[in-house]
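testing teh design pipeline on a random one, pls ignore if ur not involved
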């Protein structure tokens, strides 16, 4: 606190109520779940702050997981240097513009000054605006020293010097640096260390709960969450469970008819940590596990009133993760450095409202960078309409990814039309046609966005057989053998293999 000049001791002005504070103690674990160190952090009781008095805006951008995977794909493809740094007490770098008064921390009151309060000068942890003020400070420093902010992901920066470049990704207080020049990488490290109190962690191996495995000789890089999955399994007493071959299989059914009907059934479910388990599955799904995207979405639909069948399905996913916790999302060099998307949909399979489920997965250099499985908002009346709505959803996200990668300025092929595969020929023909007849007449105007992108030559939609549709597991349960084949094609494997 003294080093960062966080506060001044002052008399409390009349009519002002100071914000409280408390100590928070935490055990920091290493990637293997072992105790690394014990931490004590002083935090302000931000819940007592008053809007437009103690704070104004609170929004702070957060880096997308897509950005992490895009950078990993580029690191593997170009054999880039990949290092990591940690900002010590990051939030204490943010300047505070409002007058905020805080009670003195317990155990550290200077003798004779017990009656004074702390007038905060920095955005101490716990304040509602703390994250925003830290980001604004970091952004100011980066732009001042020649880093360009990505317009899609505002926590991703690029600096170029001739043919050399450095990509920087900020995750609150964790920083990833990828560069094709070791000298430029070290220059960026010196810049960061000069402006902030940094810890240099060397070559990246573990960031935001994700383990990074790299074999530079073979040109391979893998992302896994084995330690995280082990902790989740232990938390719910599933660490010794028998593995399942798949998280969901063909024939598995979900619906509100499985929800509790009586008070006794509801009372029983209140004793079961269903919502907590689904929340734990979410982080694995979002980061490295596209293979559980569909079942995660299905389980999430019944969060408010889950039944025993839903709970059994959630435990089945945990058993699947038990058998596949060593799986790595793998990246390697490819001759095909372009973004390719796969879009799929079922038709009216939701037992509750007959809506369809869209699924998509995007690849860069033939490896996964983004995926999604979600229920469509529109009730469609044909398979073609359901598939076309899925194409629309995939197109919107694909354009976002395209713009994100364009901002990195290191992938020339991104200037070509985005290629999107669909396994429904009618939807493909409708996307590439200007006619306004048939089922397409009943679609909302916004879905014509797809045709506009095709006409502008920014999008190319092509037909592909269902047998090789990578997004198929995002929309339905499959027979175990077919599911395993799709998982392998998604880039998930137990060992890094060329």
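output:
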């Amino acid at each position: 606190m003294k080093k960062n000049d966080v506060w001044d001791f002052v008399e409390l002005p009349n009519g002002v109520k100071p914000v409280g504070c408390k100590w928070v103690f935490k055990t920091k674990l290493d990637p293997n779940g072992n105790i690394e160190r014990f931490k004590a952090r002083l935090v302000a009781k931000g819940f007592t702050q008053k809007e437009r008095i103690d704070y104004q805006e609170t929004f702070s951008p957060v880096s997308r997981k897509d950005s992490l995977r895009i950078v990993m794909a580029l690191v593997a493809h170009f054999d880039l240097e990949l290092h990591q740094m940690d900002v010590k007490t990051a939030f204490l770098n943010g300047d505070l513009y409002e007058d905020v008064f805080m009670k003195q921390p317990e155990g550290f009151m200077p003798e004779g000054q017990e009656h004074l309060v702390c007038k905060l000068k920095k955005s101490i942890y716990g304040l509602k605006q703390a994250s925003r003020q830290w980001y604004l400070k970091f952004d100011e420093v980066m732009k001042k020293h020649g880093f360009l902010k990505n317009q899609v992901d505002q926590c991703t920066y690029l600096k170029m010097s001739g043919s050399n470049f450095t990509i920087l990704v900020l995750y609150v207080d964790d920083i990833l640096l990828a560069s094709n020049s070791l000298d430029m990488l070290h220059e960026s490290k010196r810049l960061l260390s000069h402006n902030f109190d940094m810890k240099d962690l060397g070559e990246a191996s573990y960031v935001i709960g994700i383990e990074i495995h790299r074999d530079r000789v073979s040109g391979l890089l893998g992302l896994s969450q084995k330690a995280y999955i082990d902790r989740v399994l232990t938390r719910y007493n599933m660490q010794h469970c028998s593995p399942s071959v798949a998280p969901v299989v063909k024939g598995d059914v979900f619906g509100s008819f499985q929800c509790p009907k009586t008070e006794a059934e509801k009372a029983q479910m209140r004793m079961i940590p269903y919502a907590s388990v689904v929340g734990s599955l979410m982080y694995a799904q979002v980061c490295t596990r596209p293979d559980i995207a569909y079942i995660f979405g299905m389980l999430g639909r019944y969060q408010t009133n889950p039944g025993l069948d839903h709970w059994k399905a959630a435990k089945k996913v945990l058993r699947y993760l038990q058998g596949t916790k060593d799986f790595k999302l793998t990246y390697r060099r490819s001759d095909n450095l372009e973004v390719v998307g796969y879009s799929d949909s079922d038709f009216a399979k939701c037992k509750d409202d007959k809506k369809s489920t869209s699924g998509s997965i995007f690849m860069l250099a033939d490896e996964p960078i983004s995926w999604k499985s979600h229920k469509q908002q529109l009730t469609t009346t044909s398979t073609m309409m359901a598939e076309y709505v899925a194409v629309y959803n995939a197109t919107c996200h694909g354009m976002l990814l395209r713009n994100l990668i364009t901002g990195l300025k290191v992938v020339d092929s991104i200037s070509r039309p985005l290629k999107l595969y669909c396994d429904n020929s009618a939807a493909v023909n409708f996307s590439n046609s200007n006619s306004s007849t048939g089922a397409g007449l009943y679609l909302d105007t916004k879905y014509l966005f797809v045709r506009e992108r095709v006409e502008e030559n920014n999008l190319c939609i092509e037909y592909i057989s269902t047998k090789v549709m990578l997004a198929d597991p995002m929309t339905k349960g499959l027979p175990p053998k077919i599911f395993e084949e799709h998982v392998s094609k998604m880039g998930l494997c137990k060992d890094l293999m060329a």
